[in-house]
């Protein structure tokens, strides 16, 4: 053992003498990471991506990215003698003839689904807690970019087997491109190598899937981790926690040991899913045929909302200078993703503009303390889920035994009504929770002890909260709406920024106009004084009752 330790010490000394890394290691190995389950969502995404890369390397040894036509003579008997592309034939070979091939295919597919689900949940956690605020706006942009790249990588991989299901998805994408004015036909011809489906789409998607998108994801993940490491880590508020410190465990050895164990848990869950739950059985669909459309099938969940948008969009088409403009395809397939991604990417600056808050924040918000932001997030989730349901309207119509048009009409109305209702209900719930927190701090918790006053009035005794619990409910700052200055100064000279200030004040009132403010020190003192007086009165009443007995 001593020999190993001495050998390691010599290696460390050799490296340190040449790159002087000891000071850097001492400083960074003790970096503090907060200990909360919500921070594990990003780690799930990272570990899922690692297993995606490992399984993808295995698959590249056998997959043939070619649309050359062959007659299948492989190990899957029902397909023998049938014409298909080399891509589809190699997928069947991976599934039935390569040892462990089907497991690796399913590990790759399940890993992609969990990667995108974990990344989405991580982004929602960051949004609802305000972790995107200064100085982390750029990291939020990196996260949005990663989400887009993950969807692109998933869709390109989903399209590679050249089966009937993936071909139908490509047909939908081709229809979206053709709806783009002026350049749509050129884009389609370039991507597919001529008239759809062409002979080049698989060979063109393959390098995008195995090189371009993974390389960009690795670059974005590296940038994300570098910024995360350089900046302070966010943490939840509470006693001893502030914007000036980080409370948690050191990176080494505590965090490294926990993250290492958690990585193998994620690997194990993905492999267990791959071994027990079938996904994307391409042999059921058969090779792609442009004349055939698969029925009762849906795309992977992360692009299901686009399919749903296409299904619920009313038929709208105009002619401009003799050329058709198909809005029923252009809006859901092209415009809608832009309308979602652009505000999502710019939201840190939009909220900063509305609230006027340009300070650095390292303590996370409780979602209830930001009712408008929380309402916006829930409204977006409601909007997305409705489109996702619309993507399987035929499936739900079959399960519920109702006409498919009923579901379509319901979602067309719900996209506006239910989304707005979700915002309003969520905001009211947050305000109600704020009032409850305020009452707890001012009057204490219920004890279940009922007192009877001399005049027969019943009341319940309240016990004051522990100091740490009270601080956890009141550590956040008071949020007052911005008030614009006067339209003119004392000399009657108009304020050139008055209109801008009024717009900012309206936005600020939208965010903070209904917020239930935490109690002030004077309010707490008055409430506690009244509480002590009530308790003393209760004790006097008990003593009087005992004396009478």
Automatic annotation (TrEMBL):
Species per Swiss-Prot/TrEMBL record: Haloactinopolyspora alba
Record GO terms (molecular function): metal ion binding; oxidoreductase activity; quinol-cytochrome-c reductase activity
Membrane topology value: Multi-pass membrane protein
Matches recorded under SUPFAM superfamilies: Transmembrane di-heme cytochromes
Name of the protein described by the UniProt record: Cytochrome bc1 complex cytochrome b subunit
Keywords tagged on the record: Cell membrane, Electron transport, Heme, Iron, Membrane, Metal-binding, Respiratory chain, Translocase, Transmembrane, Transmembrane helix, Transport
Lineage: Bacteria, Bacillati, Actinomycetota, Actinomycetes, Jiangellales
Cytochrome b/b6 N-terminal region profile domain sequence ranges: 11-237
Record-listed E.C. numbers: 7.1.1.8
